[in-house]
Amino acid sequence: MKAYFRQSMSWLHTWTSLVTGWLVFFIFVTGTASFFMYDITRWMEPERPLEVGLRQAPQAEQVERALDLLIGQSPDAHLWQIKPAHIRNQPDNSASRTHLVVRTFPNPQPRWFDPATGEEALRPEVRETEGGVAFRRLHHQFHYMDKMVGIYLAGLCAFLALAAIVSGVIVHKKIFKDFFAFRPGKGQRSWLDAHNVTSVMALPFFVMILYTGLVYYSGHYLPLPGEVIGQFKPNAPAKPTALPVGQRPQVPMASLIAEAEAVFGPGKVGQIMVQRLQGQGLSVDVSRPFGSELTRTVTDSTTLRFDALTGERLPVIGGHDPGTAWFRTLVSLHEAWYATYPLRWLHFVSGLLGCFMIATGMVLWVVKRRARHAREGIPEHFGLRLMACLNVAVLAGLPVAVAAYFWANRLLPATLADRATWELHAMFLTWGWLFCYAAFRPEKRAWVETLWLAAAAFGLLPLLNALTTDRHLGVTVPAGDWPLAGFDLTMFGLAAMFGAIAWKLGRKWAATSPVAAMGDPAVEGVR
Hints:
Layout: H1 5-34, H2 37-44, H3 59-73, E1 79-83, E2 100-105, E3 111-113, E4 120-121, H4 133-141, H5 147-171, H6 175-179, H7 188-201, H8 203-216, H9 218-221, H10 223-230, E5 240-241, H11 253-264, E6 271-277, E7 282-287, E8 303-307, E9 313-314, H12 322-335, H13 341-376, H14 382-411, H15 419-440, H16 443-459, H17 461-468, H18 473-479, H19 482-510, H20 514-517
Antiparallel strand pairs: 1-2, 1-6, 2-3, 3-4, 5-6, 6-7, 7-8, 8-9
């Protein structure tokens, strides 16, 4: 450590950022993509129907039909779960945006029904893919390693990244003034300005996402406190018991749904559960779609409970202590399932700013050391060249690898065995090739060429989509399916961003000395 506190914080900021920079960049890229997990999955499963102009019977009528089915076919169940089609349903919560889904417990195999006719429907046959869920898994488990090793490694990175954020704020004497200062074309000064601006613009988001990421798996990182606290929790809520044979709710579903919408808002009902708790009669729970409530706890604000025979409101005793409620709130903040599209886009843009913050910081480290070596006449050592090479491969190469994942989804045969696995193999094989490319290509050329490759890979994706499926912009835009069209439009936006960076760097380096233009890293730092 250093003699003065601010110097110590500067040392901490530099080395925690350096040690975790590339891994945290991977976490931010994949985590940012996971904010649109469902929409990515939809694009990667083009066999699914469009989600506009959906014909469906009134929600109460759908639920009544489902109850008629359940009473005749699940006599041994202790809980019936009915999830009508809803725009807020997520791909991995046993629900659908286009079909009514019914499950019984303890045998929760989902059954799908047409929301207009009530007829049982086959689940859409789609190509094998992990879709957008892969990004959520990758960003906290990585790949080609044991799941728990990935979780512990991600936790360590999040902890060190949070330390880097806090120490960076302490080091920053003029944090708010520098927010308005960006001086392009000034070499090292420009990289520092870019790092400062992107750091400050979404600083609350960075702190929130890193802290809640640590909370997400806190039971693995700090198991003992959770075990101790668990001993002081209130008694668990009553458990469901077997439903009365041949008995179904007598109160009309229309009245219960109407009362729930008066509390939640029109169109906000997404789940109905019928159960009989120990020592109680038959009840009906009406709630929002799972995950769209911020706390994800069963309380009076998220679930309305009714007597199934009289329709009388019953108290909801969730059995969740304040600590559990707060934990689930933090988890909800991290995943952003609760967020509507405008807020989800804000999360996405903030995640991109985080990627820029990390990238500019890693590049700045190399630029500063090169400038110091040039002043002191020190030859560039292998470690510095390795850092520069890894910057190209990770910061510019990872986006190309992500695009390769989408290309593989369209190009791999639909009948290929382990197709979803090979989509991810394509992503990491592409990334591995770019590591080799960055190692054997002159650095500046590698930067420009890899960025142009990223621009082409993203920019041509909508064209590939149009050539291989009928879910392209010519269909989705006229139909008004903007979430699905938004994927293709976002690809154009990413292509424009990478193209602009590549053009600017190529133009700048072409104006330097002939040796520098050839990519000799000893001439001057990346500016």
